[in-house]
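[audit] Reproducing an earlier prediction to check determinism. Same input, same settings, fresh worker. If the tokens differ from the archived copy the diff job will pick it up downstream; this log only records the rerun itself.
[audit] input (265 residues):
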Amino acid sequence: MAYGSKFRSPGVLYFPGFPSGVKWLLISNAGIFVLAFFTQVARLDLPWELLELTPAAVIDFFRHPQLIKVFFLCQPVTYMFMHAGFGHIIWNMLALWMFGADIENAWGTRRFLQFYFFCGVGAGLCVIALNYLLPWGNPNVPTLGASGAIFGILMAYAMMFPNRTILFSFLIPIQVKWFVLIIGTVTFMMSFQTSNGVSSFAHLGGLLFGFLFMRAVRQRKPVRIRVAGPTLQERYRQWKIQRNKRKFQVYMKKHGDRDRDPWVH
């Protein structure tokens, strides 16, 4: 991936921040999860399952198009905001923030959101296609979660910052390029298992569409990557400069008025 400038490796105090796109994705996913959780606790009969991606339901609309089934066409988008449990949403949102914040800061909110939904919807289309094309696929099993879009983010992150070191499982230091290669290989192997409870088709689709998007970006004008925000040391140095500047202005004003001829206008 060709870029206009080198990315400075963040230090210990580095904090990627919460750019607006990542922030609102976190809020929307968490809000829908909390709402669905408490409606289920209260035993309110709300059809949350209609927001999950069921390949058979989407294909059924094209076979028998009816107005009442139009919402099935939204499932490749809505499934990204549904999660199966606390562990599911926590790890997805953590990965979204850890890897997505730097990408949004490099690209801007608009392109990042385009990329996020491109990968998420693309992963959903892969789920539909592979469940019908492969002998071990099951088009009646619903898929939910933002993992497809998250895996697209991982692919983009590995192509943008291949040599950056992260802590795998918060313990093992590993470069991003090897981390994504490992999880991609594991995901491919898991796609041959039919009862692991994980939608490997969505993960593979996210990696594929993330790669395709990055290849398309490569043909465009190079993106200038910058650090998400100033570190604490940089902020402290900027504050000292501004403080000294204000002191100097006050000094010059005081002594300038003292030396000025009061009769000269």
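[audit] rerun output stored. Observation attached for the diff report: The chain is about 60% helix and 5% strand.
[audit] end
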